[in-house]
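ugh ok so i messed up the first submission bc i forgot one of the chains. this is the corrected input, ALL of the components this time, i swear. 634 residues overall. if the numbers dont match what u have on ur side tell me asap before i send this to the collaborators (the ones from the other lab, u know who)
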Amino acid sequence: MAQYEEVTVHGYEEFCKAVSERAGKEIFAYFSGNKDAQGKSWCPDCVKEPIVRGEMSHLPEGSVFIYCQVGERAFWKDPSNDFKKTLKLSGVPTLLRYGTPQKLVEEECFKSDLVKMMFTED
Amino acid sequence: MATLCRVRHRWKRIKCAHVLTRSLTGKFDYDLVVIGGGSGGLACSKEAAQFGQRVAVLDYVEPSAKGTKWGLGGTCVNVGCIPKKLMHQAALLGTAVKDAKKYGWQISGPVCHDWATMAEAVQNHVRSLNWGHRVQLQDKKVKYLNMKGSLVDEHTVKGLTKAGKETILTAKNIVIATGGRPKYPTNIPGAIEYGLTSDDIFWLKKSPGKTLVVGASYVALECAGFLTGIGLDTTVMIRSIALRGFDQQMAGLVTDYMEAYGTKFVRKCVPKRVEKLSSGALQVTWSDINTGSEHKDTFDSVLWAVGKAPETKALGLDKLGVKLNKETGKIVLGADESTSVPNIFAFGDIGEGRPELTPTAIKAGKLLAQRLAGHSTQLMNYDNVATTVFTPLEYGCVGLSEEEAERRHGKDGIEIYHAFYKPLEFTVPERDASQCYLKVVCERGGDQKILGLHFTGPNAGEVTQGFSLGFQCGATYSHLLQTVGIHPTCAEELTKVNITKRSGLDATVTGC
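and heres the new structure output, hopefully the right one now
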């Protein structure tokens, strides 16, 4: 039985749909700049993704991990995009616990102890 | 019988071995263990870690009688300064909306307030602060334990989790910064069962409705103030005087304003009992201290704001002989925050005679950490601390009250400059400014050093903070006269004040 469910989405609408389909569950979301055909992201900080992946074994039982690609660089730089306007994201990568003020932004995502702390503490 | 003897001897041997190890190597788990993760505890632990000390902080919130609990950050963040100021702001905005019409805003119909919307927004902000503190501790390499700490001996702290699991930590130095919790009255039937305190009010999901606030502290008045401001029927019950310890003339102006703006006051009365009616409402019976006559009324909520007390019993302080003040239960401290036990220190609200303020706790905590790390000998200066009461009409002050100045210098040794002024913003909406007032208490002779500065008016906190710098630098009345005001502001009236109380002249400011 899977400890957690991983969902991959592209863009704001897909993200909202994934969240609404899993109401009542503990949802963690990781936002990253889009990866190209070679798997490389335009966002220079997002290359540290393996650090977040390394802590995923600590995700609580029955939780959901949504991996969301926000879009191309131009889309992200526009301050009126829904991620910035509605979800109040300030930078990528962002790792957050949906529905709570708990979030790690940019360099904070590189610290495995902080990632582990978010996955394991209340 | 024989088994018992064997067990006892074994335990003695183990304890001896433990102590022997400690004194041989001098090795403790931590250089510093801080009990209490509030304004003081967090500042102290983070500062100590900066100096390379191995630090652990234990924070645990014993749920209130009503079951309310909260996260890391202490009273200020969770059930004090932060939610208070936000709810005070919510109330001020209500008044601003009423004024807005006179300024030309077209607002159709009456504007009402929704508690749930405000509470959720405030609670979310507090939660983001809890998280922020958690990340900071992790970042600064401070070990955080969500456990209830108590003292085992001068170098040992026991931590207890909610589930009852024990952890033992040894430390070179121990700091106690556990603050205080609201007191419940002990002799009023129904008080604990049916009443709330400031620990609960900010975390209510539903509006408290028609509320009786018992007490006359700044907690009582600030809460009653914002409850009135958001449109709730609010009554304050005072036994004797309001804002004990503060300048009483200013306290009167604060309560007069509240009364003019809709807060009901029941003076010289004490509650006798609280009963729950079949409707679910609370019936409070109280008696008039002078006449002895009894009165009753029903309320949706009763908020006790009759003082705060430290939780020293659970800390195990009596076991170690840490000296406490018999009356207040607070820890008796030296100027360097030391207790009667050599390596145990304490500061913040739990310290006897200390101001119960966040900025003083933070500063004292940082200086203590610096001293313990051997980086400084500087002691905390508790003098000249400015403060503000965030009642609907805010009151800011720094230095001595008029009463205290008179006590120290005699009535003839002081000169008081004062003025009643009207904030410009009050003119258009025709708001009553009768309680907007300021006074500067000075030494009578020489340069007339400023002994105390008092101001009631909008943004009193912002105004007073600026002047507190001058106060710290030993400002005199002549300095004040040399200071040019910023126009148009309320603060500038402080630079123009020239009528003395002694002259008996009308102190109302007239025009530009």
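quick check: The interface with chain B takes residues 100-104, 108, 111, 113-114, 117, 121 of chain A (CB under 8 Å). that seems consistent at least. The mean pLDDT of chain A is 91.
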